[in-house]
Amino acid sequence: MIMERKFQPVIIFSFSRRECEHHAMSMSKLDFNTDEEKDNIEQVFSSAILCLSEEDRGLPAIELMLPLLKRGIAVHHSGLLPLIKELVELLFQEGLVKALFATETFAMGLNMPAKTVVFTSVKKWDGDTNRYIASGEYIQMSGRAGRRGKDIRGICVIMIDEKMEMSVIKDMVLGKPAPLVSTFRLSYYTILNLMSRVEGQFTAEHVIRNSFHQFQYEKALPEVVQKITSLENEATLLDSSGETDLAEYHKLGLDISELEKKIMSEMIRPERALLYLVPGRLVKVRDGSTDWGWGVVVNVVKKPPQSGTLPPALSASRGNNYIVDTLLHCSSSSNENGSRSKPLPPRPGEKGEMHVVPVPLPLLSGLSSVRINIPPDLRPPEARQNILFAVQELGKRYPQGLPKLDPIKDMGLQEPELVELVHKLDDLEQKLCSHPLHKSDQSEQQLSWYQRKAELNHEIQMLKSKMRDSQLQKFRDELRNRSRVLKMLGHIDADGVLQLKGRAACLIDTGDELLITELMFNGTFNDLDHHQVASLASCFIPCEKSSEQIRLRSELSTPMMQLQEAARKIAEV
C-alpha cells in the first residue's frame, strides 16, 4: 500500500535485530528499484567492499545484503558490520533504499528522514520488562517521518497487535517526553582509564565534580531547601498537645495491623481458604494503600485472569494461581461507553456500581463470617446493585466492623505459631479498647493530625539526609570500594599505580573488562584455536533471548568451566 500510494521511502522500526532481519527477508520477493538503480547500487557496493580482504567479502553478512539492496530493501541495526551500516545509510540518503528495517538506534543522532515511518510493535524489551514505548521514544522515531522541503506532511503508521487502553495511546503519542536525567556511574573501565592518564587534571574526582550528574544535584538543592521550609511550617501549625498518648495509641494501631497481616497470610493459604471462599462470602480486598472495602465472592478459579482485566492496583499480582472472582464496589467510569476498561474504586461521594473483578488470592485482607445470597444471574445491573445495597446495610448493622472468621474457632487452625499470633492480637486489641483515646470524640481527628505530623517529620529528615549525603561523597565512597577491588585483583598496586593487568583491561571496551582480563592472564585462551576463542568470546556479547537449545561441545566444556570459575572469583572479591 505504501509503495502504491508513493509514500516511500519508509522506515520500519522493529525492536529487535532478529525481527528486522525476518521482516526484510519476508519481503525479499518484492522489487522496488529500476534496473538503473540496481546498477548504481551494485557499483557502490562493489567499491565499498574493496577495503575488505577477499576472505571477509565472502561473509554471509556481506553476501546476503546485496540482493536485498538491489531490490530497494535494507536492514540497519547494531549487529551489522560498520561498513555495511555506513553503506546502508549512504544508499538511503541517495534514495536507492525504499524500505529500511531498523531498530530504534537508527533514530538517534542520524539525520535520515523518510516520508513514512511504521512501528511493527508498540512494546519493547528494556532489559527488565516488556513495556510500551515512552513518549520521548515515540517522538524521536516518528519524527523521522516527513522530509524538509520535500514532503507536505509525514506519515506515521502504528501496528497494534493487542488491545490498548486509550490513556496508554494518549500518553505515548501526546505525552511529555521524559526529563533528561544523568545516569552517570563509575565503572571499572572508567576508573582504570582515568588512572592511565598522566595529566593531573583528569583525576576521578575532577571528572565527577564536572559531571552533568553533579550539576543536576547541585541545581536541585535550592528546591530541596524550599521544600524543607514549607514542610516545617506545615508541621508547626499542627496541634502537638498530648503527643505521648497519641504516639502510644498510633503504635498500638500499627502493631494490630501488622499482626492481622501475618494471621491473614496464614488463613488465605489455598489449602485452608478455598473451603470458605464459597459464593456469597464477604471478603475484604486491599492492595497497599488502596482499600477496596468489602466485596462478595462469586467464584474461585485456578488460572490467571486475562490480560487487561485487572484494575491497575491489582495487576502486579496477576501471576498468582488462584483468582477470586469478587463483586466489588467500583467507579461508574469503569464501564463507560460500553467498553470494558480496568475497574477503579469509586471516588469519594460517588455512588458507583458493583462489578465482578478477578482478585488474586493474596490480596484478600479479611474473611467475614457473614454470607449473603446472590442471584444465579449477575449480568443485570439491578441484580448487582441489590447486592451493593445488602453490603451497605450490613455495614450499618455492624458499625464496629463486620464479624470476621476466627482462625482457631471457625477454621480450626491449631498451629502453635498461629495460636500465639492470635493471642497477641487479642491482647493488643484489649489495650487499644482500654486506651483513653479510644472512646474520645476527637481521637480520630487527633490521630490524623499526629499521623500527618509524623509523615511530615519523616519527609523532612529524608530531605535533610539527602542534602547532607553529597553526591560527590557517594562517588568518593564508590571509587574507594572499586579501587580496593582492583588492588585485590592485581590491576593496580598499593599506591594506586596501574599494573600490566590494569593496562590490558583499559583496552577492553566490549564485554566485562575484569572477567576477560582474568581469562587472558590465567591462560584460558592459550590452548584454544581461533574457532574456540570466538565461541568463548561470544559469551561476553549480549544477545536477544532465543528458544534455541545449544549443545556445548566437549572441547569447550573446560574453557566454559574456567570462565565460570573466574566469574565466581571476581564476584567473591
What does this structure look like?
- The protein has about 575 residues and is α/β, with parallel strands linked by helices.
- Among the domains are: about 10-175, Rossmann fold, CATH 3.40.50; about 275-405, Elongation Factor Tu (Ef-tu), domain 3 (Beta Barrel); about 510-573, no CATH class.
- The protein has 21 helices and twelve strands.
- A five-stranded parallel sheet has the order 2-3-1-4-7, sandwiched between helices. Strands 11-10-9-8-12 form a five-stranded antiparallel sheet. It has a two-stranded antiparallel sheet with strand order 5-6.
- A hairpin with a 4-residue loop joins strand 5 and strand 6 (about 130).
- Helix 7 packs across helix 8, helix 9 (about 190-195) crosses helix 18 and helix 18 packs across helix 19.
- The protein starts with 9 loop residues before the first strand and ends with a helix.
- The relative contact order is 0.08.
- Mean pLDDT is about 80; it is low at about 305-320 and about 335-340.
- This is Os11g0176200 protein.
Q: Which keywords apply here?
A:
573 residues, alpha/beta, Rossmann fold, Elongation Factor Tu (Ef-tu), domain 3, five-stranded parallel sheet, five-stranded antiparallel sheet, ATP-binding, nucleotide-binding
